[in-house]
Amino acid sequence: MLISSATADDAGVYQVSPDLALVQTVDFFTPVVDDPYDFGRIAAANALSDVYAMGGTPKMAMNIVAYPMAKLGALVLRSILAGGADKLREAGAVLLGGHSIEDDELKFGMAVTGFVHPAKIWANQGLKPGDQLILTKSLGTGIINTAIKGGLAKPETVKSLTEQMAELNKNAAEVLRDFPISACTDVTGFGLIGHLCEMIADTGRRVTLDSGAVPILPEAREFAAMGLVPAGAHNNRKFRENMVSLASGFDPVVRDILYDPQTSGGLLFGCAEQIAPALRRRLADCGVLAAVIGQVESEGAVGLFVR
Amino acid sequence: MKEIDTRGLACPAPVLLVKETLDREQPDTLLVRVDNEAARENVSRFLASRGFTPQSDGAGADIVITTAAGRNVEQSHEESGSAEPRERANNRKIMVLIGSETIGAGDNELGAKLMTAFIKTLKEMGGELWRLVFINGGVKLVATGSPVLADLLAYQQRGLMILACGTCLNHYGLMAEKQCGQTTNMLDIVTAMQLADKVITFG
């Protein structure tokens, strides 16, 4: 066993031979959008993401389904499964089977297995002084999902949110394999700040996060200003507050976005400043967002500083 | 005062419950009970975004949020899903202050005609017209015998707030003759001037 839940990494890794390790992860949740096919795509992209965040290649998956058959009928379920299957195909992974149970509340997700070379695993921790921090998707999915529940999000906002959440981290991960990155994770339930804190917890590192450079989905700021912030964002803040220093007078609306739990969020990684331009160019060529959102400092007090 | 109890609900449910109540009943003042800090912050933010001035008291599981001065932005929210044009959709608030029953100096008969035409044409401002305030001789326009009474009553019917200076009504002995609008005082007028995006003084 190379990596377990002890280090709060994205997936477990088990070494099979000197040049092969298995990456194992599982994720499932209740619907985040109304369209069943889109929900299937998003749930699959979200489950696959942990394998990419470890540097692995997804190889096989099992569906996990909790479903109210009497209430929703077979057609909705077929659409969800079709969305999931399409994403697996795009990832180059095969569906081995799955398990379903009858439940009052719909839930869907996957257990995914990937391969990785034991020497090429991307751990959460390993950031070095001088590294730049790069994020590959915009923030705000939790806040916009909250607005969708309240019937406040415009159709075009739902569309851009759906497309971002259904986008695999595959292209981003494939580019990163050609570069010596120092640490990588994907931004999910703990929010950007929560995952950044995981990357530097107990490492003695000091990181500056430049909130003005963080990409944010359309309308997320407006909804956060209306108080449409999920409970998870507040829980994330309570959990990590003691590691984080906000600039004085920091806008609480932006703060909540930085703590907002993300569904199928982007990769967050560190790399040396010298290679950052070439790496970002390659990501842009593949249609992947690559925002430099902060850096690892070489001196100063330990912790996360947000300005 | 409308009371909403959101205790026992996790975010964003308290905000959504308050939103539903606002959309359904459009209360002027609210009292919202919440039982955690996150809900306090979210509900306060939401009320502020809807034009209220929220204040909260208490701590822990017993927090009460009240809206003190009522709302100062009426129904400006775009996303309510309604197809009909919203009142004052672009949110600018225009206050018109009328200080006389006539407009301009020269001939009072002409001035009275101009004022009648002015009041009738004011509707062209649409939803941006926010307050119509009458002072000094202007208060005669809200009293019995006014040539524009029917127009003013129609404006009032559509939700425009019409105010008439109480001191002035007393001065002209017209308090009992007032046919539309609410009696107001100088503090009200000054506050309205401060809240308005534009004040037009005429007459």
Can you give a write-up of this model?
The complex is a heterodimer of chains A (307) and B (203). Chain A has two domains: 5-120, 60s Ribosomal Protein L30, Chain: A; 132-306, PurM-like C-terminal domain (Phosphoribosyl-aminoimidazole Synthetase, Chain A, domain 2), CATH 3.90.650.10. Chain A is 37% helix and 25% strand. Chain A is built from ten helices and twelve strands. Chain A has helices at residues 36-53, 69-91, 141-149, 155-166, 170-176, 191-200, 220-225, 231-240, 252-259, 276-285; strands at 12-17, 20-29, 57-67, 94-102, 107-116, 132-135, 183-186, 206-209, 244-246, 267-271, 291-297, 303-306. In chain A, a hairpin with a 2-residue loop joins strand 1 and strand 2 (20-29). In chain A, helix 6 packs parallel to helix 8 (231-240). The radius of gyration of chain A is 19 Å and the shape is globular. Chain B folds into two domains: 2-67, TusA-like domain (Translation Initiation Factor IF3, 2-Layer Sandwich), CATH 3.30.110.40; 94-202, DsrEFH-like (Hypothetical Protein Ychn, Chain: A, 3-Layer(aba) Sandwich). Chain B is of the alpha/beta class.
